[in-house]
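Continuing the series of single-chain predictions for the mutant panel. This is the parent chain; the variants come on the following pages.
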Amino acid sequence: MERPLIPLLVYFVAGITIGNYYQFPDLPLLIVLLITLMLMLLALLKKATRVIAVLLAFSSIVVGILDINLYKNQGMKHIVNYIGKEKLIIEGIISDNPDVSTDRTGLIVTTCRLIHDDAIIPVEGLVLLSINDNQEFKYGDFIRFKTKLKMPHSFQNPGGFDYVRQLRYKGIMARGFIKDSSAIVVLRENQGDMLKAYLEQMRRNLKKLIRDNSSSPEGEIIQAMILGDQKEIPKEVMDKFNKTGTTHIIAISGFNISIIAFLSFFVIRLIMKSSSYLLLRFNIFKVSAVCAIVPVIIYTLIAGMGVSVVRATIMAVTFIIAIILGKERDLYNIFGLNPLHCTVRVIQLEYPDRGYEVMG
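Parent structure:
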């Protein structure tokens, strides 16, 4: 088959769509997938090409259903089982960069345990915690707070954006509200992943550097273009971007990633061309392409790994790999690889405005 990734993408998306509307238990699906893979191996030995194609299509559908199940299933210890009962004392780790605006802070907390009637109950799952002030918290803070959990809700507009589904696919099925940050106690710091904590510290240092060396609103705009944080842009300035249709300028997307990739490729190639030894020993075009992947990934990590950034990075890295393999002209096949874990997520998760700004 000339472009095998295109049909695989279609079957994978079909599996996600089926799993989105119908519930299938994981264990039978895993057994079916294992049997399918064994039959595929047998068909490979027999060189039954058509049978392999059918089994590969079926297994792609099953993998798509299993993929969407990761965002739908929860066990007995899940925090969703304690929604609406009463105010609970909950402990957990801030598992993402806090979403801070002028008058509100949003925290995604990975719950560990709750305290009820002097008993400690182990729990799991994510809670979206909204606080009515802009007190600064950090990724990796282990916090204790008291709140009454509620189910997220949408505005129920026909054909409108499904906020509940967006949160569910992020693994968030419960929300809590706190009047001010004094009700939150930071028990320990730096409890998250060390690499992510280091990256978040780097982001804070870059933000401070921009603030100290630029005035408003220029500093906030630069911060949005480099770090992907638009929350601090003044409302009147943001309204002007929206009215003129130029919001994409301050959003990190394919344009930013392509600049990083092109400049990295150009500089590395220029350095290698200055050495006759490297020119004789290596294919500088392909080596430059490989080395350009590293700055792209580093910038993606520093930019916060938002949906649009990850989408652009996957596409850029996929295209660079295609160049290395000599397949750069087969754009349709390249496009087939990119969305296997990106385009579907973007369609389901990307909020058209500004992420967690809708807290009500």
